[in-house]
Design brief:
Blueprint lengths: L3 E5 L4 H12 L3 E6 L5 H7 L2 E4 L5 H11 L3 E4 L13 H26 L3 E7 L22 H18 L5 E7 L1 E3 L12 E3 H11 L6 E5 L9 H7 L10
Parallel strand pairs: 1-2, 1-4, 2-3, 4-5, 5-6, 6-9, 7-8
């Protein structure tokens, strides 16, 4: 049975690969972008596009109330195309801002509308130093320094907002480094995950998985992915046709 889904950050790398998967599964998707120029593309993929800025709490709340979603998916990021190294320092701060304030605004809107499930994008390389491979129960690197402290701090804030959003069931997908269409990357360092398989994990989490975090990456020596395989039915080899 299809669900009403509010997909925040639909014009990002994962979002663009997720919209057609959700539509094909029979879900009714309201998809957000901050740029009006991208709205038409989202409509062509099978979504009902909405132009809204996640930092505009009132505008976001109005958009969520209009969509009446049962499930909210958070794929919001603010990163440069191809992860351009010359722009990453500034982008890291912006991305951490989205993960904190943006996630908080999205959680509050989801609560107002009575959504029952919230699925959010996180990262799989924020664990504190220690024995590998890391499982989801391992601590995140709250003692990080420099630019890593900014990035990990944003991740910790995001996961706290999502997993503390009771009575909403919060699902955190800790993705490996993305590669594939729309990412600007053809080969990623471990832990890595193809963008189609990353989107597939979000699709599966619509129906499956208890509250908590899931590592989502191809087999590697840094993190375990057994939980996502077992509880979500995820597999790293998924690719969109065509």
């Amino acid at each position: 049975m299809g669900h009403r889904i509010f997909l925040a950050g639909a014009s990002g790398a994962i979002g663009r690969r997720l919209v057609p998967q959700l539509a094909a599964a029979g879900h009714e998707v309201t998809a957000t972008t901050r740029q009006a120029a991208k709205a038409e593309d989202l409509g062509a993929l099978g979504a009902d596009p909405v132009v809204v800025d996640v930092f505009d709490a009132n505008g976001l709340r109005a958009a969520v109330l209009a969509a009446k979603p049962e499930i909210v998916i958070h794929q919001l990021t603010d990163l440069p195309a191809g992860l351009d190294p010359s722009k990453m320092a500034e982008a890291t701060a912006r991305n951490a801002h989205i993960r904190d304030e943006g996630t908080r605004n999205l959680v509050e809107a989801a609560k107002v509308v009575g959504a029952r499930r919230l699925i959010a994008q996180s990262i799989a390389w924020a664990y504190a130093p220690g024995p590998e491979p890391h499982a989801e129960t391992d601590a995140l690197d709250g003692g990080a320094e420099g630019g890593r402290a900014v990035s990990v701090g944003g991740v910790i804030a995001l996961e706290r907002h999502v997993l503390g959003a009771s009575p909403i069931t919060g699902i955190v997908l800790r993705y490996g480094h993305l590669y594939g269409p729309g990412t600007g990357v053809e080969v990623a360092a471990d832990p890595a995950v193809h963008v189609d398989a990353a989107a597939y994990a979000a699709l599966l989490a619509v129906e499956r998985g208890a509250q908590g975090a899931f590592n989502v990456a191809e087999p590697n020596g840094h993190i375990t992915t057994d939980k996502a395989v077992r509880e979500l039915g995820w597999h790293a080899g998924f690719r969109l046709a065509g």
